[in-house]
Amino acid sequence: MPRHNLIIAITSGEPAGIGPDIINDIDPNAFSARLVIIGDRELIASRCRAQNASSEFVEYRSDRDPPESGALEILHIPLSEPCEAGVPNTANASYVLEMLKRACDGCVKQEFDAMVTAPVQKDVINRAGTAFSGHTEFLANLCGEAKPVMLLTADQLRVALVTTHLPLRQVPAAISTELIMQILEILNRDLELKFGLRHPHIKVCGLNPHAGESGYLGREEIELISPAIEKMQHRGLNISGPYPADTVFTQQNLIDADVVLAMYHDQGLPVLKHAGFHRAVNTTLGLPIIRTSVDHGTALDLAGSSNADAGSLLSAISSAILQVECVRKNAPSS
User: Fold this and answer.
1) What CATH number has the domain bearing residue 238?
2) Residue 298 in contact with residue 19, Cβ under 8 Å?
3) Domain identity same for 67 and 110
4) Which of 313, 304, 278, 321 is closest to 119 using CA atoms?
5) CA torsion angle for 17, 20, 26, 28 (degrees, to 10)?
6) HSE-up of 243 (CA within 13 Å, CB side)?
7) Cα separation of 287 and 114, whole Å?
8) Could you point out which of 78, 192, 284, 298 has its C-alpha 20 to 30 Å from the C-alpha of 89?
9) Are residues 155 and 103 in the same domain?
10) Are residues 154 and 126 part of one domain?
11) For residues 141 and 145, what is the distance between their CA atoms, to the nearest angstrom?
């Protein structure tokens, strides 16, 4: 294996899901980085055997070079209890969280250059007694950051969110001019730093049908969203809107957009996943670390079946590497 100067940590996700399966589709020789899998060694190896895969595994140690053979390096964290594919166990919720903490801590301390996450089962973690709305919010809390921003990409389409994992009825009350401004500032900064986009054009969705229809279908556009856009325009950001969400995603309207900012989860992400499911990548902006993830869930019904598609995971690894390289290139000199 080449001596790469990048190290990417990859958490293997919910042990009963497809995370441990798709890990076995990773070819470490296909990436310009050293890849370190975080999870239970025997769980991942057993899924490999069940799939008749040919992956090799060696123990990861930070004080030595990667193996020459192209084997996958495993940073072993033991399961709390044995795991059956497709059958979640709340006893293993602490194991899932420990993987995330280890990867995040390694990134903060610069042991790893970025982290990539396989999917987790949110309800299992919550039933085990830990309030967990998603990777995005959990990692932000670990990093001490107040405002993470969820960005999904599929080929040239990028969609960011003002609110993430909220019940729909809570969305209007969660939106404010100040929040939108904060999101826009983070989005503009990280698109420049991590994606190399100079003066990116951000198109902002309205909240209501037809972007409120001049107030007849809601006043959030007039009272909250437009003031945020205008204030950030005065600061020199390249922002426009608010646009009706049912037309902003047409091909013609996307020609000059670097990213679309949606007000809530299911306003923007169905479009993106339709455009590029199994190629899409979830990136958490606003953190002091680089984190990417798959665009799908745990697919419990596919776990252990050899039928899971690893495309999104492989895309997430590639994106993490590109973002690290971009940050190194664009970071201001100290």
Assistant:
1) 3.40.718.10
2) yes
3) yes
4) 313
5) 150
6) 22
7) 11
8) 284
9) no
10) no
11) 6
Q: What angle do CA 124, 128, 134 make, to 5 degrees?
A: 50
Q: Determine which helix (DSSP H) or strand (DSSP E) holds 58, and give its type and residue range.
A: strand 57-59
Shared domain for 262 and 299, answered yes or no, is no
140 and 1 belong to one structural domain = yes
Structure tokens at 318: 């590639």
Sheet of strand 57-59, all strands in order from the earlier edge strand to the far edge: 57-59, 72-76, 34-39, 7-11, 114-117, 291-293, 281-285, 149-154, 157-161, 259-262, 202-205, 239-243
Range(s) of the domain holding residue 20 = 1-145+287-334
The Cα–Cα gap between 52 and 36 comes to 22
Whether residues 141 and 232 fall in one domain: no
Question: Residue-wise pLDDT tens for the chain (334 aa)?
Answer: 445 789 999 999 999 999 999 998 999 889 999 999 999 999 999 988 887 777 788 999 887 777 776 788 999 999 999 999 999 999 999 999 999 999 999 999 999 999 999 999 999 999 999 999 889 889 999 998 668 999 999 988 999 999 998 999 999 999 999 999 999 999 999 999 999 999 999 999 999 999 999 999 999 999 999 999 999 999 999 999 999 999 999 999 999 999 999 999 999 999 999 988 888 999 999 999 999 999 999 999 999 888 989 999 999 999 999 999 999 997 766 5
- Nearest CA among 277, 315, 282, 270 for reference residue 299: 277
What type of residue is 170?
A: Q
Domain count, the chain: 2
Residue carrying the six token digits 């990028």:
158
- In DSSP notation, 127-190 reads HTT-----HHHHHHHHHT-S--EEEEEETTEEEEESS-S--GGGHHHH--HHHHHHHHHHHHHH
Answer yes or no: do 150 and 279 share one domain: yes
DSSP character string of 109-134: TTSSSEEEE----HHHHHHTT-----
